[in-house]
Here is the input.
Amino acid sequence: MNIYFHIPFCKSKCKYCAFYSETLPPPADYVEYLLLEMKEILHREKQQVKTVYIGGGTPSALPLPQLRQLISTIVAECSPEEFSIEVNPADVTPELVDALHGVTRISIGAQSFDNNVLDFLGRRHKADDIIRAVELIKSAGFTNFGLDLIAAIPGMTKECWEQSLERAVALSPTHISIYNLSIEEGTPFFKQGVVPIEDDDAMEQLSLAQSVLNVAGYGRYEISNYANPGFECKHNLAVWHGEDYFGIGAGAYSRLGLRRIHNTDNWHEWLSAKQNGNKIPYTEEILSEEEDFNERKFTQWRLLNEGINLQLNSPKKQALLKTLIEQNIIHEIMPETYALTLRGTEIADSVIAAFM
Ligand code: SF4
Here is the structure.
């Protein structure tokens, strides 16, 4: 089984952020209740834990004693095959790295190596912090770490983007994620009227990323994710393959068979339910078998190395497939198994929708 812990706290709010997170110091007993819930799940399910992922928010914003308690208890109780955590470069100190003992994979929110771009995004770290964080992580013996970068940032030149990619590669991470900036309603960027860059320019940046990263030996195994062979994120692959996962914490999602559960986004509600021994407020959707099948199909399209097995009975869909292969949007990677090409990834949503 797979477990995700959500830490919905950040030290400041990024201007593009549409995620639920609070800029509060995390409450003292938040971690204690996360761990209590984990122990209940382990006791109830009696299954080996395959992956654990601590995400946010900003897990590295937890006070060190809490972070240490969270990690050491997870290691002692579950010893997962893969144990990932997200960190902000500004938080990485020798003491924090020491608290990560037992983690097997560190994901660093680099976003850019240009200080002007980082300022524009409202990030609280500088490019030098990324370098320093990687040095500390490496010197503590961690070899499996990833960097996240953001593409399609208004005002960022092609040269600046290329430099960020090259500086990321120079640090030899095992994994690189590339996310496209989108201006979501309710974010500071949206309120400021920040205008997204043209689609063609965004595509050009994503295609540049693919060529720089492929040359450096990273395979694009999912639309937004590249890795050295063997370093693909097992937790995310489990989620994309439709495996069950338990989400623990305010705002966390779980997938349990056909159930999709979303814990209350309100950390205060979550915590007081825990403190009073009540059920956490949550919303739940129960999918039909067909909806579940379609959801799996949708995510399978995003896995570019694996592709999707298509046995099409409809002549209309067969003709569409033939056209998309001729247009180099889809390619056959094994008999009757198809994946998106680089061109296909640029219009992924419409291609996927056509085969749903
Ligand atoms: S660190 Fe992540 S979750 Fe926190 S404000 Fe920035 S983008 Fe949002």
